[in-house]
């Protein structure tokens, strides 16, 4: 007993006890807390998938099949990913109102929570692009000038130079991009909806897509500002050149006629 009491009165005894207590507490937390959190996350994800499957059976299965395998009326959704579902459903394109050359944007009929559940279910069918986080499509840190260059190289041939949209073949069209949620623009590049090609990270990196989203936000954000003067619809150099040709040449013809008339009148007098 005397030896034990002597050890307790040792100057380092309190420090040893404190370190031992911290080690035990840390070990218990590492052993139990992460497992509980992971289990909670798994439970929430499983519930989202379960609810999403119910929504899918009611609103999507008639065209895409009960397991998303596709039918003659709709393509397979295996491997399209959560981003494709978020884009198509949040923009109202899906469920489609009627068949046609292209499904237009319309008011969506699902809440964001229901869209997330549908996305979770479709994502469980096969790996695909996930819904981007806000940092991926935010303007913060984006290079707007580079985004404009990338857009003109990869997108302007269909969407025109500032995203005003344009006609394609067989009744299809490239939609206007002004007023579109930045997240949906990013998702469209990731997933390639309808006639649009997909731009994965191999062809356009995440920072490239962020730059393009920032460029579109800049050119379509302030409707009163046009640094180059009258924008003529923002359709690009063809419309501007045509305007210059018709009105410029027309003005020159008018001046030539006026000069000729004045000359003829002067000769008569």
Short descriptors:
269 residues, mainly alpha, Cytochrome Bc1 Complex, Chain D, domain 2, elongated, respiratory chain, Cyt_c-like_dom_sf
Descriptive account of the structure:
Its EC number is 7.1.1.8. It is found in: Cell membrane. InterPro entries: bc1_cytC-su, Cyt_c-like_dom, Cyt_c-like_dom_sf, Cytochrome_c_Oxidase_Subunit. It is a single chain. This protein has 269 residues and is mainly α. Among the domains are: 80 residues, Cytochrome Bc1 Complex, Chain D, domain 2 (Orthogonal Bundle), CATH 1.10.760; 105 residues, Orthogonal Bundle (Cytochrome Bc1 Complex, Chain D, domain 2), CATH 1.10.760. It is built from 11 helices and 2 strands. A two-stranded antiparallel sheet has the order 1-2. Helix 2 crosses helix 5 and helix 4 packs antiparallel against helix 5. The model has no long low-confidence stretch (mean pLDDT 84).
